[in-house]
């Protein structure tokens, strides 16, 4: 039987200016490890959207030349505290998490050209450029964190419809920026 301390708690907190520094610090470590494969590295997810509440977990997206070679970095990623999780439910991704219960970072690795890269970046950039929708997302996440405090699946499912709607808007919006 698990104890309370072993259960992951969903916590959404106000935006923290420190998140950018945490991203930059961790991105440097990941860049050193994956230097030979690295194309680009990005801060994604809610901690990359100024002013909105988020789970205090820094999401890092890494674009690489060849996704098949990423497993070669598993041991070095473990040395800096990451747990390699393979695709972890998304085909064509390599996923690493830092901290099982008290997570601090997620690293999502995709091969350059993967459509997930553009989707994540469009979402982030759209939300930054549309603060009212970002505020709505922030409010939704706070409500869901209360409702699903120990249920990450419920929390994620509760966001799913909103995210899909924003993904569509963000894709159209991105076309106008070319």
TrEMBL record:
Keyword Kinase on entry: yes
| Keyword Transferase included in the entry's annotation | yes
One term of GO molecular function: kinase activity
InterPro entries named among the record's database cross-references = GrpB/CoaE, NT_sf
Keywords noted in UniProt: Kinase, Transferase
Protein name per the record: Dephospho-CoA kinase/protein folding accessory domain-containing protein
Q: What organism is listed for this UniProt entry?
A: Clostridium homopropionicum DSM 5847
